[in-house]
Amino acid sequence: MKDPLLQPIKIGNLTLKNRIYLPAMHLNMAVEYEVTDQLVDFYAERARGGASMIAVGFATIDKLSAGSSNIGAHKDEFIPGLKRLADAIKDNGSLAAVQLNHAGKNNFSFMIGETAVAPSAIQARMTRETPRALEHDEILQIIQSFGEAALRVKKAGYDAVEVLAGTGYLISSFLSPLTNIRTDEWGGSFQNRMKFGTEVMKAIKAATGDDYPLIVRINGNDLMSGGLGRNEMQAFAGELVAVGVDALNINVGWHEARIPQIVASVPRGVFGYLARGIKDRVDVPVIASHRINDPGTAREMIADGLCDLVAMGRPLIADPDLPNKVSQGRENEIMHCIACAQGCFDHLFELKFVQCLCNPRAGREKETVIEKAENSKKVMVIGGGAAGMSAALSARERGHEVVLYEKADKLGGQLYLAAAPPGREEFNELAVDLAERIRVNGIRTELNREVDESVISREKPDHIVLATGGKPLNLPIPGADLPHVVQAWDVLLNKVITGTNVVVIGGGAVGVETALFLAEKGTLSGDTIKFLLLNEVEPVEDLRELAIKGTKNITVLEMLEKAGKDIGRSTRWVMMGDLSRYGVSTRTETKALEITEKGVRIECDGKTEEIAADTVVMATGSAPENGLRETLDKMAINYDVIGDANQIALAYDAIYNGFETGRRI
Length: 665
Known about the structure:
Blueprint: E1 9-11, E2 14-16, E3 20-22, H1 37-48, E4 53-59, H2 79-91, E5 95-100, H3 109-112, E6 117-118, E7 132-133, H4 136-155, E8 160-164, H5 170-175, H6 190-208, E9 214-219, H7 230-242, E10 247-251, H8 272-279, E11 286-288, H9 295-303, E12 309-311, H10 314-318, H11 322-327, H12 345-349, E13 378-382, H13 386-397, E14 401-405, H14 415-418, H15 426-440, E15 444-446, H16 453-459, E16 463-466, E17 470-472, E18 485-487, H17 488-492, E19 501-505, H18 509-519, H19 526-534, H20 540-548, E20 553-557, H21 569-581, E21 585-587, E22 590-595, E23 599-604, E24 607-612, E25 615-618, E26 622-624, H22 629-635, E27 638-641, H23 651-664
Parallel strand pairs: 3-4, 3-12, 4-5, 5-8, 6-7, 8-9, 9-10, 10-11, 11-12, 13-14, 13-16, 14-15, 16-27, 18-25, 19-20, 19-25, 20-21
Antiparallel strand pairs: 1-2, 17-26, 22-23, 23-24
């Protein structure tokens, strides 16, 4: 049977060679609206990787659309840069599209130089600023500007244009009763609120011609209380197709929605049902998106009729060659996106360009090309965690002979710790992917092997990379040596049994993750809930309670004013929300004074009390584990110390540190 993922499909008069669509993503790589070499290199790499169509953007339609780190399409002077990007994509084998958008209320005034505009003057939840309500003539001008920008896109040589009509931006702000309280022809009834969006599409078709493909990205559900659900969005989809839209790309949720959409706790392909609901209503191709990070999920969604194509954005940041690997029967070599959001979304909040934990070359395609070393060396990597494997791979690509030693029975190190809490299982995928790349690249691996001077002497390496990771940090708290005190790492690896009343000392990332891991003990699994629901064993409201009500009472103690301060912004709000949902008590600005036989004595607001605990979990940080340094100094061998063995940091830092070290040897 033919692979559904590799079959061609038509959008308008275009034929796409496969069903993998790279959706537009804000990369923060444009400068003063101009296309940069960095953007060109980024997308050329993904075109060579085999995606059938690549959408870039979003791009601006007027000066109030977005800030200058977005691609510009609101003036003719941007056409040469747009053309250069289109040529890079098309010359390397993909079709090219530009996504147009007006951010509306989601614009920060400091980024556009004046107050943002919207259908109504209602404070934006994302910016905390109140936009200015658009006048009738301004609305007409914006509609015209969409058409003019689309024509520029066509003149620049793009095969299609896409319009973003979701996620809380201007078009979806007109759609929603939460943000549109107008009483004129642009507000009121749902039919009126749809008018702005449909008029934009009419203007684009009038400017570019009926035969120029137009794709629209809409929400399948806004995920906003009081906003628009799937029924209304299905109706809007029908209206869009009626005015000539050639394909629909189904997004989910506004940016300010408090339901996770892109992080690892979101199940793979979970929002495919929204694409299916729209596919059942229209006769144009429908693209599904969000958390479709592996070919298996994508293939099944297409084969089962949920969608016609899949949007794989972050998966193609993580591995640009994913489509080629599918077509060449090399799916085992794919580096999967693990939905950590550390390099893609968190970087945007920090006004940095997009990068990727799984792919150290993302956003630096040209500058990180690994050249063969003049002289091949024997490189010994000690430690098979994220940093060690990353270093081994880049050193091997450089042309060196590499041997990797790991004291455990499998590669992965602390990635398995990161994968233990609920919703973080994708870190297992990263460990497996890196280990498979080690195997495919023919790197000799010695497992269950402690390294000492004798082992090093036998190997006779020219260079050593010490990547032995970290170890739990023990704070000098009285009572820390009592038998009911355990380490967070041992809890996460299921090496210890914990009691009913648990106190976690340390509210950083590891403490929060450990608390969530324990909070799920005794709750119902997804499969159990489905069985009970379908057989009507318990009322729906009871099933929800049983899904979050575990068998442990958990308290997290944190000395700082906030818990989870070292967790990335994209995931922190999700994890802190889960703590609250599971009923975990979080005590901030609280100091653990002493661990007793019966609990933990604490100080908070100048008062002391004792919290009962059957088990006390120490989650007080890590320290580098690099005891071999003295041996290496004595042996006078060139070496690098990387990852947590050098300085405790994130998995993102370990991967990058390892990559850079290996390619410098």
